[in-house]
Amino acid sequence: MERLSIQALDAAGRGVARDADGKVVFVEGALAGEVVEAEPVRSRRRFSLARARAILVSAPGRREPRCPHFDRCGGCVTQHADARTQMAAKQRWLEDCLERIGRVRPETMLPIVYGPEWGYRRRARLAARLVEKKGGVLVGFHERRSSYIAELRQCEVLPPAVSALIVPLRELVGALSVRARLPQIEVAVGDAATALVFRHLEPLTEDDLGRLRRFADAHGVCVWLQPGGPETARPFHPADPGPLYYDLPEFGVRLRFHPTDFTQVNAAMNRTLVSRAVRLLDPRPGERIADLYCGIGNFALPLARAGASVLGLEASAALIERARENARANGLVAQFEPADLARPALARFGRFEKVLLDPPREGAIAVVNALPPAWPRRIVYVSCDPATLARDANVLVNVQGFRLAAAGVVNMFPHTAHVESICLFERD
Length: 428
Hints:
It is a single chain. This protein is α/β, with parallel strands linked by helices. The chain has 3 domains: 2-62, CATH 2.40.50.140; 89-116 and 266-426, Vaccinia Virus protein VP39 (Rossmann fold, 3-Layer(aba) Sandwich), CATH 3.40.50; 123-189 and 194-242, CATH 2.40.50.1070. The chain is built from 9 helices and 22 strands. An 8-stranded mixed beta sheet has the order 7-21-22-20-19-16-17-18, with helices on both faces. Strands 1-5-6-4-3-2 form a 6-stranded mixed beta sheet, with no helix packed on it. The longest helix has 18 residues, at 83-100. The radius of gyration is 23 Å and the shape is flat.
């Protein structure tokens, strides 16, 4: 054991300290301002990993983790910190990345957006594995720093009805003939229905199919089967399930999606994020706005509701078709086109006054490098990775001539190290 004083939290939610030799130590389960006794886990030449075993001096933001599996499940890393402590650390990480990587500072820091901490996770990929030593099949998330699956009986961040399915799912998969060849169950929760997508690597028997039907009926869920890649997912029972959808009441928009489509995991925070993005972009009737990485129309359709002329671009043809269907279903006019945004050719679509960016973790470096010097004049950038956001902000500010007018964080992923942020860039 080693006594350590924790100086900060890192991007993975671990405490950061220095040992007696000045070497950096990352300490799981420790918070900034604490003094802990830490047990070494792994040593590297430039840093070490450790685990807090005793808290000698507690931080004001420390609390008891709510989940009984927190000590081993890798789904959450900061349940021992209250929401203010978690979000303050995420805001500091955003500011640090912008300054250190991007060499930019926002003119204004937006207020932190809080939200529900528990039962928020509407999307999840549950691993399944036959483990004879554990008495059968395990269903859940991986253990920390491990490929093993944590032995869960509940999950506090899943909706309660989904958390209650973990044990029944273990029993169901354990009774299937393909129990050793069913690696995952994808969960997708809409406002009115829940879908479970079973990824199976071998054909299911008639007995298997009967068990899946009975499970769906007993628990009120829609079962989908996926024998190959995501494009092979099809509804199984009920054969004609009601649509999965979520509403954006502020804009009178309902978005339908398939369970393997990308949607935000936190519906309440998504509503808030869309509202903030639309206010920052300030769409005006007739204004041409491009929504890049548009997905199923999460931002594009609220912008269209405000009267803007919206073009949504996205690499996935399936998501583009879904966005078009959503536009028609909501009675909105918006154009959606497939496009390779790693090789953007934006000029062929004409001039846009404003742009919304919501890229994957890889960021939007090709897009920001390809922007014409004359337009757009305003960009709202929604990011799930502060490092790639900061890299792109460097180009926007120091090359393209934008100002970073505002930046802020949103509590999209409570109890994890994932940072969701939003930035406003403007130029004259």
